[in-house]
């Protein structure tokens, strides 16, 4: 039994099937991808004489191939695996154990895994004239064999001795269309094509007689009468030496046969374009060729013009001639026009026609066919017509496959028609050219490469007659008949150009000749080789034109330009002029000094060639045309030595003489100045600036690192002070703690000053303007410093002049910073007396005011020499070891730069020993009523207890920080575990029974930093990972966002205080409403969000794209609210929204659960507006999206939409306290 093609096998043949192959007398081998034998059947072992143990695991081609053939067979095998191609059938010998070669007819295919990857090759075959096993019948486990055969793609048949059908496989029946009942009454002779019947039966008889038949090629007919071309092999089953049946495995090659015929027709049509004498002959030949591959009883070719206004039926053969169209028709909505407009081949049935007619797409003309194949005749993207065949009686006359054939051929048909039409057009064009050749005013002639005259027009004949006294004739030698009468120098010019043209070089030159009257005549002569289709040429065309008047004008112009050139030869800049085509017509000699060219080298050249950047040329031209001039246009031009030269160009359009209209494009004239040295100076300055900025960036980074290193020990100091304050028992201890707190606050102030200076110098400090009340600012300054002043018995006052506006727009934080620095210095350097602030408006334009703030003290004063040093960085007037006053020298420097950022300046008036007046000004706009700040509502901060003691993991490598953090968290009611680094933290969270509610993670640690440790914890714990909060000394404003982008959930900066820790715990673990347990939090308790659970926010459902892109909280809006109403106002506002929105969602939950989603619309409208006002953009976007969906009737969005709404509310509740805290602790930049 023969085997299957490569595509049919997806796994090795199972053992039951190898037994079946044994029963059928087939040998079987299974190889892997390198040729190792994986399995064989008993028939193969019987053939070769080996045992299974000797065969399995050996390389097949090395064991069973003849020695000389092994390298070749090895390479063929590996190539077939690599290219996934294998011969379906072949005949190869097998080397037996005894050294004999046994011929085997093989069938082969690939085995593949479930992914379709080749895993090896199976081979099954038979030994001619020999049975390895006795039973030819389909005995044994026939179910497996039937499955095996039905999965084959080749046609398998088993015939009785009288050629009746004993068995055919599934592929046989599907390909030929016969049912089991039909096969029961038919023989082989009934299904073979009559033309092939005698040959096949003859081969079968020979096979029964014992003669070998290596290959069978025949044609079967389907039950519909269509031919199927087959190729394969046949074998005979014998019992006791007598043939009892035959077997055949046949492969369908119909497509190959069709392709071969199609290819022949394709090339035949291509040749018809050459051999056909005219278009009608071509159409008939095309019809004959097409009839060889498809039915063409009814065929037409319709051609259209490019504008698609007319349709001409160039060829039409039809069984119903009364319906034949006549001549050219207007383009309408017939089926041909439909195919042309669509540009695609169409298979149209009678039903399709009816639908097209009913829809008005097509108008029926004549009898509607049962089926039509139509393909546009395309040449590239251009459609020239349509080719169609049709049948009026049989709907099955054509198949969709025939449409592919017709479409394939149609391209060649289109090319053939187009070529023949072009030939006819060329014939007409030739006639027209001859008419032009004779009727023009130019002198025209052609000569061959040997200077023999080949053709000429009447003008040339007349000129030749005037010059030589005789008429020219074809074939005469021009050197002897014409040029011999010229003066020698003119003849030499002609001969030189003729020789160049004879070498394939086109020539154009001007000559001054004398006519018969003795006058000078200037002639413009063109010589061009006449190239043939193969690129060669045998003749040269010549055209001569009288340009005497033009030449005289040109000579006069050149004389004029020479005079003009003498005027500007002394220019240092380059003066130039171009024509309308951009060619340089004039250039001053200074081009030599600037660009290194001699003027003669650039004249006549495109000015574009000298631009380093061609885009500059285009921009210059555009600006010149737009403004009719060009001013201070900087570009670069190439020096002759190859380097760029920077020039500044000023130019204008040239205008024609007065009274003349411009013809074509206008030229330009201008001056180009060398600015290379200026640009070099600018580049040097830019490099210096870049270097300074780089140094500033390095300094900024250094200060940031220094801030981190200082804040780490500060965390221990301030944290311990916070803890110590809660254990004070005596007034003396309270005083000590107060002193420690003031000292630590002073140290933090110094650190913040250094960072502010760094930001200012790096240009990163931003001004955030809001409406403020000046008196409120003064009250805040008085509240800050009144206690310090009273301790030194200093009278501290302020005064705002009457004409000063009450409300102004400025940056309140920076204004307070300047005033704080000046007032702190005034109190520091005043031992007794007064410190007073005076605020006044010194000038105004009606809207903007220049406000002056003067801080006057009765302190020690400053000398004039020292006053100039006050406002520089790190400067102190007393730098001796015994100085009486501390400080970093940064406060006044920062104040100066802040005053400048606010649009003003700073200064001092002082006499040593007489006190000082430090003043500064700012520019501020008077606020209108709509911009006035809202008075904040003050609420007492409280701590709330948690439902259960939170289990906290504190990760820090610093022992002091561990101690401080552990004590602070314990005071807040937490159960705290401590890890000394990332690896230890990983071990603790993955230990059995570990159940932490939250992790506080230091960032900078040895071995493994906090970001890496967090990533590993998240990887190990997955969705059960608790929130991870960065607790670090990195204090820049951008650090919080950076750490959260790197995978942490929240951020708290060092030094850490109790209220900071409580706010984080509040956000993530949610305290229980009830009796307060302490003070220190700025956030009041709000109900838990509907979707919030201990351990962090829930997993994110899939939101709409327009919602998913939005952030949870727009902190810009939050900062604006803080600046507008203050910290307490903003905190209360967000807490009230949390309470109100939480109630809305809880009340709406039953409605959503019942599916009454339309009743949610009022709640969605309210939530959408309020959330957007407070910067809850994601929540507002989800409310807006859900409202839109429900209004549109898409109630299926209700459940998921409400779940997302709860989720975004939970995210907002979790995030806003931290954002408010950051707005409080980090001044606006």
Describe this structure in words.
The chain is flat. It folds into 6 domains: 6-256, Beta-Lactamase; 259-427, GAF domain (Beta-Lactamase, 2-Layer Sandwich); 441-516 and 529-534, no CATH class; 551-657 and 665-674, Beta-Lactamase, CATH 3.30.450; 766-931, Heat Shock Protein 90 (2-Layer Sandwich); 1097-1229, HPT domain (Four Helix Bundle (Hemerythrin (Met), subunit A), Up-down Bundle), CATH 1.20.120.160. The chain is built from 39 helices and 38 strands. The two termini are 87 Å apart. With 1229 residues, the protein is α+β, with helices and mostly antiparallel strands. The strands form 7 sheets. Strands 27, 28, 29, 30, 31, 32 and 33 form a 7-stranded mixed β-sheet that branches. It has a 6-stranded antiparallel β-sheet with strand order 13-12-11-16-15-14, sandwiched between helices. Strands 2-1-5-4-3 form a 5-stranded antiparallel β-sheet. Helices cover 43% and strands 22% of the residues. A hairpin with a 3-residue loop joins β30 (833-844) and β31. α23 crosses α29 (959-971) and α33 (1058-1069) runs antiparallel to α39 (1198-1225). Residues 1-16, 130-142, 874-887, 935-942 and 1072-1098 have low confidence and may be disordered.
Shape: flat
- State the secondary-structure class: alpha+beta
Main beta-sheet strand count, sense and barrel state: 7 strands, mixed
| CATH class bucket of the largest domain | Alpha Beta
- The CATH architecture of the largest domain can be given as 2-Layer Sandwich
Let me know the number of strands: 38
């Amino acid at each position: 039994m023969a085997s299957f093609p490569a595509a049919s096998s997806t796994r090795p043949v199972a053992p039951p099937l190898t037994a079946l192959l044994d029963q059928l007398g087939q040998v079987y081998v299974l190889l892997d991808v390198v040729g190792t034998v994986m399995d064989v059947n008993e028939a193969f072992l019987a053939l070769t004489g080996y045992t299974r143990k000797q065969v399995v695991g050996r390389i097949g081609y090395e064991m069973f191939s003849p020695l000389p053939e092994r390298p070749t067979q090895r390479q063929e095998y590996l190539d077939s695996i690599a290219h996934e191609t294998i011969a379906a059938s072949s005949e190869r010998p097998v080397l037996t154990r005894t050294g004999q070669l046994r011929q085997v007819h093989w069938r082969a295919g690939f085995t593949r895994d479930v992914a379709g990857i080749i895993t090896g090759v199976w081979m099954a075959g038979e030994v001619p004239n020999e049975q390895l096993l006795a039973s030819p019948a389909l005995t044994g486990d026939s179910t497996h064999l039937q499955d095996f055969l039905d999965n084959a793609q080749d046609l398998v048949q088993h015939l009785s001795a009288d050629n009746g059908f004993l068995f055919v496989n599934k592929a046989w029946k599907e390909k030929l269309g016969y049912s089991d009942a039909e096969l029961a009454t038919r023989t082989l002779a009934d299904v073979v094509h009559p033309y092939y019947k005698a040959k096949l039966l003859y081969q079968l008889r020979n096979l029964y007689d014992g003669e070998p038949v290596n290959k069978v090629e025949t044609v079967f007919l389907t039950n519909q009468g269509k031919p199927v071309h087959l190729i394969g092999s046949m074998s005979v089953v014998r019992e006791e030496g007598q043939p009892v049946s035959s077997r055949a495995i046949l492969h369908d090659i119909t497509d190959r046969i069709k392709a071969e015929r199609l290819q022949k027709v394709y090339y035949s049509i291509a040749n018809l374009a050459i051999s056909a004498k005219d278009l009608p002959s071509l159409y008939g030949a095309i019809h004959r060729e097409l009839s060889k591959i498809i039915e063409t009883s009814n065929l037409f070719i319709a051609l259209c013009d490019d504008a698609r206004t007319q349709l001409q039926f160039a060829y039409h053969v039809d069984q119903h001639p009364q319906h034949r169209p006549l001549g050219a028709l207007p383009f309408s909505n017939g089926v041909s026009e439909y195919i042309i407009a669509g540009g695609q081949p169409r298979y149209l049935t009678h039903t399709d026609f009816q639908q097209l007619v009913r829809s008005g797409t097509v108008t029926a003309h004549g009898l509607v066919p049962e089926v039509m194949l139509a393909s546009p005749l395309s040449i590239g993207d251009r459609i020239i017509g349509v080719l169609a065949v049709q049948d009026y009686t049989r709907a099955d006359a054509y198949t969709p496959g025939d449409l592919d054939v017709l479409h394939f051929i149609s391209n060649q048909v289109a090319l053939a028609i187009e070529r023949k039409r072009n030939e006819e057009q060329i014939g007409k064009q030739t006639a027209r050219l001859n008419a032009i050749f004779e009727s023009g005013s130019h002198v025209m002639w052609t000569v061959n490469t040997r200077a023999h005259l080949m053709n000429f027009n009447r003008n040339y004949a007349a000129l030749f007659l005037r010059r030589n006294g005789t008429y020219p004739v074809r074939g005469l030698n021009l050197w002897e008949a014409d040029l011999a009468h010229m003066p020698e120098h003119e003849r030499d010019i002609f001969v030189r150009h003729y020789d160049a043209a004879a070498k394939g070089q086109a020539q154009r030159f001007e000559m001054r000749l004398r006519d018969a009257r003795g006058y000078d005549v200037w002639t413009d002569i063109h010589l061009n080789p006449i190239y043939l289709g193969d690129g060669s040429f045998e003749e040269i065309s010549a055209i001569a034109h009288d340009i005497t008047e033009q030449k005289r004008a040109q000579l006069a112009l050149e004389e004029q330009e020479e005079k003009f050139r003498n005027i500007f030869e002394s220019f240092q800049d380059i003066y130039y002029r171009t024509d309308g085509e951009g060619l340089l017509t004039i250039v001053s000699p200074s081009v030599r000094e600037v660009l290194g060219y001699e003027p003669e080298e650039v004249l006549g050249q495109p000015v574009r060639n000298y631009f380093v950047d061609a885009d500059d040329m285009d921009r210059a031209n555009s600006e010149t045309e737009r403004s009719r001039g060009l001013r201070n246009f900087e570009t670069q031009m190439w020096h002759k030595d190859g380097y760029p030269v920077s020039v500044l160009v000023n130019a204008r359009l040239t205008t024609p003489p007065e009274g003349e209209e411009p013809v074509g494009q206008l030229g330009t004239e201008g001056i180009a100045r060398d600015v290379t040295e200026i640009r070099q100076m600018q580049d040097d300055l830019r490099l210096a600036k870049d270097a300074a900025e780089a140094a500033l960036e390095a300094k900024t980074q250094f200060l940031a690192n220094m801030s981190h290193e200082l804040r780490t020990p500060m965390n221990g100091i301030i944290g311990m002070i916070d803890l110590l304050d809660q254990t004070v028992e005596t007034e003396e201890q309270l005083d000590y703690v107060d002193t420690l707190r003031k000292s630590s606050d002073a140290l933090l102030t110094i650190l913040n000053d250094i960072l502010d200076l760094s930001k200012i110098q790096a240009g990163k400090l931003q001004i955030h303007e809001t409406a403020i009340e000046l008196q409120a600012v003064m009250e805040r300054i008085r509240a800050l410093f009144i206690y310090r002043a009273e301790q030194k018995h200093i009278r501290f006052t302020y005064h705002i002049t009457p004409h000063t506006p009450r409300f102004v727009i400025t940056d309140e934080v920076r204004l307070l910073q300047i005033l704080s620095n000046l007032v702190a210095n005034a109190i520091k350097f005043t031992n007794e007396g007064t410190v007073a602030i005076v605020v006044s408006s010194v000038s105004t334009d009606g809207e903007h005011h220049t406000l002056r703030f003067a801080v006057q003290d009765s302190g020690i004063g400053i000398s004039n020499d020292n006053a100039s040093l006050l406002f520089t960085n790190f400067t102190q007037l007393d730098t001796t070891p015994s100085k009486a006053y501390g400080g970093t020298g940064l406060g006044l420097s920062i104040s100066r730069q802040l005053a400048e950022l606010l649009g003003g300046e700073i200064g001092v008036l002082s006499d040593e020993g007489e006190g000082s007046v430090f003043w500064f000004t700012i520019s501020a706009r008077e606020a209108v009523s709509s911009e006035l700040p809202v008075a904040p509502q003050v609420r007492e901060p409280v701590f709330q207890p948690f439902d259960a003691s939170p289990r906290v993991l504190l990760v820090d490598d610093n022992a002091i920080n561990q101690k401080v953090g552990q004590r602070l968290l314990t005071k807040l009611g937490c159960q705290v575990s401590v890890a000394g680094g990332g690896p230890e933290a990983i071990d603790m969270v993955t230990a059995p029974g570990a159940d932490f509610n939250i992790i506080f993670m230091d960032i900078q640690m040895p071995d493994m930093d906090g970001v890496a440790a967090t990533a590993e914890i998240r990887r190990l714990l997955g969705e059960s990972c608790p929130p991870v909060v960065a607790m670090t000394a990195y204090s820049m404003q951008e650090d919080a966002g950076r750490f959260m982008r790197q995978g942490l959930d929240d951020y708290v900066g060092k030094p850490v205080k109790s209220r900071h820790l409580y706010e984080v715990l509040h956000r993530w673990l949610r305290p229980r409403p009830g009796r307060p347990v302490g003070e220190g939090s700025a956030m009041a308790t709000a109900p838990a969000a509907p979707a919030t659970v201990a351990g962090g926010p829930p997993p994110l459902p899939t939101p709409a794209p327009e919602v998913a892109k939005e952030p949870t909280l727009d902190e810009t809006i939050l900062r604006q609210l803080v600046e507008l109403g203050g910290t307490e106002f903003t905190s209360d506002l967000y807490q009230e929204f949390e309470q109100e929105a939480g109630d809305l969602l809880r009340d709406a939950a039953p409605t959503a659960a019942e599916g009454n989603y339309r009743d949610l619309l009022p709640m969605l409208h309210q939530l959408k507006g309020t959330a957007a006002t407070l910067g809850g953009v994601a929540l507002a976007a989800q409310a807006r999206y859900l409202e839109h969906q429900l209004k549109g009737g898409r109630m299926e969005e209700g459940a998921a939409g409400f779940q997302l709404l709860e989720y975004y509310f939970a995210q907002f509740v979790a995030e806003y306290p931290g954002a408010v805290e950051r707005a409080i602790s980090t001044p606006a930049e």
